[in-house]
Amino acid sequence: MEKKTVTVTLTKSVHGRLKSHKACVAGLGLRKIRQSSVVEDTPSVRGMINKVAYMVSVEENKA
What we know:
Blueprint: E1 5-10, H1 19-27, E2 36-40, H2 43-51, E3 56-60
Antiparallel strand pairs: 1-2, 1-3
């Protein structure tokens, strides 16, 4: 069974954002604007994405 993944891309700067939002972006493996990261689709990752949804774009990867 293959694990589902999602591609997360940072679309806005983390400058001046809440500390917890910066931590979520870092936890998703993102540092620079327009940088993408492929992460496993788990409830904890989904929670991080939902928290910073205004700063990232998400693309579902097909297995």
